[in-house]
Input
Amino acid sequence: MTSSITVNGNVHSVDVDDDTPLLWVLRDTLGLTGTKFGCGMAMCGACTVHLDGQPVRSCSIPVSAVTGHVTTIEGVAGREARAVQTAWVERDVPQCGYCQSGQVMAALALLRANPKPTNHDIDVAMTNICRCATYLRIRAAIHEAAGKLQGS
Output
């Protein structure tokens, strides 16, 4: 069946089964491979994208349920994205790098919802799994990005 979805500001007509997970449409049909497959059960967060600005796990959403605008790691831009990406590099967050697109997407959503998160806020919001265990670096990078966005 043909579905129409908006990804990174572009409308795409995709000919896939209605129950095809959004993740596979993004990766296999549209060639946007920044979003990763991790567990396939919406638990690890490697597949995190934004749906109308909210972080969602794309491995568990059928394309037929996507009615809003999808933003992938390839589509993030602007001051917030630069602040997070710069902080990630400055705090040496990536190790293997596999989970990082999902981590960045979750961090961006957090900072948009809460511009000055506490450690507790970060721990609650950042449920993505990092097998390299860079959680303290992730937390520090989020604080750094928040500070840059607040002008301090």
Summary: The chain has a mean pLDDT of 96. Residues 135-150 form the longest helix (16 residues). The chain is about 40% helix and 15% strand. The beta strands are 2-7, 10-15, 48-51, 54-57, 69-71.
